[in-house]
Amino acid sequence: MSLADLLDVRPGENAHLVLRRATVLDPVASINAIHDVVIREGTIAALASPGEADADGAEVVEAEGLHAFPAFFDPHVHLRTPGQEHKEDIATGTRAAAAGGYCGVLAMANTAPPVSTASDVVALRNLARVDASVPVGFFATVSRGMLGKELTDMVELREAGAIGFSDDGVPIANANLMRRALQYQHLCGGNLSLHEEDLDLSATGAMHEGAVSAALGLEGIPSISESTMIARDAALARYEGARVHALHVSSSESIHVLCEAKEAGTRITAEVTPHHLCLTDEVVRTLDARRFKMSPPLRSESDRQALIGALRDGTLDCIATDHAPHTLEEKEVPYEQAMDGVTGLETAFAALHTELVLPGVIDLGLLVERMAGGAEPFDLERPTLAPGSEANVVLCDLGAEWTVGEDGYESRSANSWCAGQTLTGRVLMTVAAGQVAFRLRSFSLGVAS
Amino acid sequence: MKHLLSIEQLSREEIEGILDRAESFAEVGRRDIKKVPTLRGRTVVSLFYESSTRTSSSFDLAAKRLSADVVSVKAAGSSVEKGESLKDTVATLSAYDPAAIVIRHPYAGAAQMVAGWTAAAVVNAGDGKHEHPSQALLDVYTLRRKLGSLEGIRIWIVGDVLHSRVARSNLIAFTRMGAEVTVSGPPTLIPRGIEELGCEVSYSLDGIEQAEVVYALRMQKERMSESFVPSLREYAASFQIDTRRLEPRQLLMHPGPVNRGVELSGEAIDSPQSLISEQVAAGLVVRMAILYELLAGAEGAPSGEGEGSKPTPIGTPA
Q1: Which one of A80, A383, B125, B271 is most buried, counting C-beta atoms within 10 A?
Q2: Domain contains B1
Q3: Contact residues, chain B, for A220 at CB < 8 Å
Q4: Where residue B247 sits, what CATH number does that domain have?
């Protein structure tokens, strides 16, 4: 199903655009050439020979030297509505998504109160139809009130339009409750997105357990607090013939478990965040909680290398930002006391392009593929540039340098993990579900006369 | 040196500079009037978010012996209890234009954050389980007085290394001064990866007889309930430093307060090889030296005051 069919977005004008002489790259559709991308009525009408598409009243964007990719899809963001709108709301969060090149996001349910009833879901969907710049799907919680005790009314929640289920923020500690949810999935459908962590093993840890935590005197969160839970849930999913999605995988031990589970035929998908791909626990030596405190924590260099390897070989299906806005007051405290989470929607592509593609660690095609890989695990159509598809397009200038935060953020919060960094590669324009969702202010467009 | 936030930040030369300064203050302590005018008219704020006897009293006394005005704020009974943030508390105290803020806080990095919020020199008097640099300096001072140099000296740090800021700061300070350090304790209380700080790790006391110095850490009673050790009795059976385990030529240290009969036996504490009282005495002169280096040393000297590097007593008959 297309994004517009299953997710909610503010209605607007369908795009009529010609991206003149864009370098078009969609590895999944085997497209890699210079084309005029013709978008009519919000649909990719044609990939014409460069310079030959008829404008026919459409807005023409001179895109020579610019790249057009399938727009990105993020299955893991926190829009903080309801209850924490001082950090983010649907309007600001989806503006941030659009500015980052995303054509769709899935919002987590750990709000205040959590999204646990059908009326919560309906209210959020109605709000999204007024406020959302890009299509949004809403998770409902697995357990009522996210308390880990009883299941929510999962069938009713699905009927109300919940895209899937997640207690993200806290793990489902009770294995029997987890099993019941997996059994129930056969009735209600919808994937289960799992925050995989054994809180007994994490205890009062504040960062990855290793040489850096030993040096800083911060209590450590061992890698196995994540990997043992993935192993548990993979075993349960396999036993019940159900499917699960592992959120923000961070450690090499977890990759090992995922690899084995996938080889055994378990229906498990997994995501990784840009910050876990770019940073290690070494940066925590700065004790800068605003940029470097999140759950799961930044891990060691060998973990990071394992994540990159798993991104390449497909053990990790997609990149998700875990965009987690927090106020300055919640971050301007000693490291152990600070809230977990960093923002990432506006910087994900540029950061990964700068840190992994430009140095040759991964190629551009792989990044583009994984940035849009978050739709399929939730039964959504992968964004593509194949003619006839709903227009979900991001136009990027891969040579443009910009400093993160210099011009502020679309997000209401400023806890970006790459604040102040100069990145190479910038999103100029985003088309989401057939509508122009974002244009960079300084990116001038020539309209055909 | 603008702040003293960690031992990590200090070179061996800087450590030696502070200790040499402390030596010169030792002489002041032997006078009838134990005061020098160095910091006259300047204010030292001590801000303690955790209970402390030794550290807070010796910093206060050190500042007074340097003739500073001292304001001591304890979290208990202050507006911290009303929910004031660290940042706002520091802003409030900074309005008094203090020359230095001495801070103890239960969380790592607190002193570093404070340094970003105030014009005062900041002294870390313990931040969470991270660092306790003045303790490490006074311990090095005590050993240097006893042994002349730490070069090649073997030091065992025994006990709850995981929860100890003293262990971390001392490990760094001792190795920086040329000593060879082994940390020893039950595996549950030795942090994974500690060896990357340049020490050996031993999960038993086997081999402790090679050490010249045994440094025992405080074993907190609540560690039992968290299953770090099954019982204090079992801990003591394997790791208590007593006169049977301690060879007569070995020196014994402890940061205090001691759990008598847990990490140290009573006889060991009272034995002549125990340096515990010397450590407390060293705390005063070393903390005077720290304040002096920060506030009146080469970089920190206020213009026009014209104090020489040699402290002069006041109140001595002309």
Answers
A1: A383
A2: no
A3: 191-192
A4: 3.40.50.1370
